[in-house]
Each structure stands twice: as structure tokens, then as C-alpha cells.
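thought: fold this chain, then report.
action: predict
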Amino acid sequence: MRHTLAMVGFGGMAGWHYDLIEEIDNLLVAGVWDIKEERREYARSRKIPVYGSLEELLADPTVELVLVATPNDVHREIAIQAMEAGKNVISEKPVALSSQELREMIEASQRTGRFLTVHQNRRWDGDFLTVKKVMESGRLGDIFRVESRVHGSRGIPGDWRQEKEHGGGMVLDWGVHLLDQVLLLLPGVKLHTVYGTLTHVTNQLVDDGFTADLGFENGVHILVEVGTSNFINLPRWYVLGTNGSAVITNWGQDMQLVRAVGKSEEDVIPVRTAAGLTKTMAPRRQDSICTEEQIVEGADVREFYQNVMAVLENREESRIKLSQVMRVMQVMEAIFQSAKTCQVVRLEE
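observation:
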């Protein structure tokens, strides 16, 4: 069955969507609309049909799906307008600026009977899928801490992402991805506490970085961090278990694991530091550990659109649950609240 999509907003991310859709069978882009003339001209230069207005796009009877790829502050308005026009909607992330806005979008989906989903594309990141697989395998023993980071050194891009009124800042830009990932690492486990801090190194209007400690019901803590003024990056992933540790240094790199193999470590040889000896921090003997490499999982992000089409054909359930999207939104709100009050925020009691 063939499906037809139209795009509202044709910036860089929408161009990425267009190139991806070109590779997907039975999905066609009918056209685009953008409020900026230069983006409309760019679309025309690529031989992509351009609508005369948003209203014209929504009135096109051939359009079944609308992709909302605009600045964050107008996702809700456009998505609701599209659903009320009888269209199914894919929203870029973050789906909205608050949980209340998301509730209004969900209510519109229920009222109109239209399908609403969010492009949480980083569920298909190979590094995330590798961490999830290793945690589920039990190879590291009981997991007690996970750290997930992305670091850059150029500040926030010089566009609307720097502006509070458009929903800028790193919590909404990158936090929405990392939080979506880590919440999937512990399915069914309640998140009890959130403690967050924000940075304003290069931007005083919005957060240009943040750190959040998430404390789960089972005792696991997950640290999520985004930085844009980091000239030396810390690892993308760091996973600690009772029987070993794992690290993924950066995108495109495989996982390194070090695991205990059951040899006795009773006779520890102290290590000499600058000011004394220590047994506690002495390295393990090589015969008591196993060092190995885990190749990063392969993934195909086209599965997102393939799942959307299967949902419209009543063959599958959506892989992006709106309840999951709401949970991420509530955690982002908790990070802002915690940073403002310098207090731990309690959730999901």
C-alpha cells in the first residue's frame, strides 16, 4: 500500500527526512511548506513540490501524513491543526514544550481518530542498542550505574535553538534523545528521583548543557549529561556492573568490556602513588579479568517509517508509545524544576 506525506518546515532535519524517505518503498513526499522563502526556493531547486501555504498543504486530499519539522514552539499548534484536517502526524522531537501541550495533542489525536507519533530516531543508534543488549545479557552482573553523555565544544548552533521562545536549549534538544534511550534500559522500573543542574557558559537565555542524576526504584542510578563547552570528551557510554564494566568512547566505535573471571584477588599487590601506597585502587591481576570487544549493533532507522506505515495499515502497534513520550517530557520538566530549586524532584512513587 502506498502512503503520501507532506512536510511542514524544510530546514536541515526535514532535508534529512526527505533523503531517508527516498530510500523507502511505498512512501512518497507530496510536497513541502516552509515560512521562509529561501527554504522554499531550496526545495524547488531539488525538484520538490512546494505548497502555497500551510492551509493548501492540509487541504490536499492525497496527503495522509504530515511531518512537523518546525521549531519546537509551534509543534503543538501545527500538529493539532493537521489532525483536525484529517491528517496523521509525525512530530519532530521534542513533541512539545511541556507535558500540558502534549496532553492537548494526545486529546486531539483521540478526538479526531488520527495517529500521532514522534520521531525518536535515536532509538536506532547502534551504541544505545549495544548497551541495551549487554545489560540484558547479564555479562556484567547486576547493573548499578550507567552514564550517557554527548559532548561538544562549539556551543549551541546559531539558530532558533539558542532562543527560549522557540524551545531552545540542550535539555529539549539533546536531553530528549538521551532520556528516551536510558528510560528504555530499565523497562517497568519506576523512576523515583531526579536531580538536575544546568550550565550557561555560552548562552544566558537557554541551557547550553545539563547534568541529570536519575535514581530508579531498583537502586540503579543513571547519569545523563550534555555539554557544549567540552574540549576533552568523556565516554559516550559507561556501564558499571557487579561483575564488570563497559565503555563506548564515541559514535562509530565498538564497546570495550572488562569482566571478572572468578580468580581469587586476595593477594593484592599495593600500587605506589605519589604520596603513598594503596591496595584499594591497585589494578587487578591480568589472570583475574577478561578483556573483550563487543561490536556495535547494526540498525536501520528506516524502520521508523516502515513502522508508521504498518500502523496506518493496522499491521503493527507504534514503536514510539505516547506514554513513553510523556514520561520523557515529565523527566525534562523535573530537570528544570530541580535546577531551579536545587532540590531533588521525586517522581513515580
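thought: worth noting. The chain has a mean pLDDT of 95.
final: C-alpha cells above.
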